[in-house]
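Hey,

The postdoc asked me to send both predictions to you directly instead of through the lab channel. I've kept everything plain text so nothing gets mangled by the mail client. Protein one:
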Amino acid sequence: MTFGIQPIHIVIIILVALLVFGPKRLPEIGRTVGKMLNEFRNGTREVTDSLRAEVNGSVNPVKTNPPAASIPTVPASGQSFTIQPPSIAPAPAGKFCIHCGAANTPEALFCNQCGTKMPENTIKPSDPSILGRQG
């Protein structure tokens, strides 16, 4: 049996409920408990189905065919095939907070998101020793 409950335990629980609630209210309580269990099962089933749909990557379980333009094609013999690398976005200019990682303007003294003091620029482009110039 489930949860280690034996049939004798169920009989004892029913007898105690009969003594506490009386024979007139016992069917009503049984119906109420049955409805609650049914609603709980339906709710857990809906949540499980929606989570499975999200994990599978589609909210709508109906499968659709991808458009023809997105299917890669192999060039015929004699044609050249070149692979273009993905474009790399330039790094954003400015300072980044050492505490939260938020981007700030180069002139910022404090982080605009968490308020942490920004580190001072210790390297200056005009410093000749960094650029290898002696001067």
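Protein two:
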Amino acid sequence: MAYLLDTHALIWAAAEPSRFAPAVLAILQDERNPLFFSAASIWEIAIKTALNKPHFNINAREMAVALKRVGYLELPISAHHAAGIAALPPMHQDPFDRLLVAQARAEGLVLVTNDGNIIRYCDGYIDLVPCT
């Protein structure tokens, strides 16, 4: 299977892998599983850092380079992905999360997340793996 990591899952993977449940960590460490990160996550990280969010100081450019260096594949944002948001029910208003759900759905990727709002899309919209 191929997996798309939500923004917080990417941050955990880079800085705190012990936060993942053992089964999820095994998925992420299995070299047979393609792992993707979305350009939307890098965008979200850049915005949060630029807004000087407390306890949030991640260099988005360095994060993207580091993810690629360890084998993650970049998933660009396409018009097809953006248009896919229209098919999602309005369960969640975060535009980055909705875009990640639309990307996972369009590309047939399993979304790795621990966000309860995203998890609500699991039923009939996407396959996902909760982080914990």
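Summary for protein two, as requested: The chain has a mean pLDDT of 90.

Thanks,
C.
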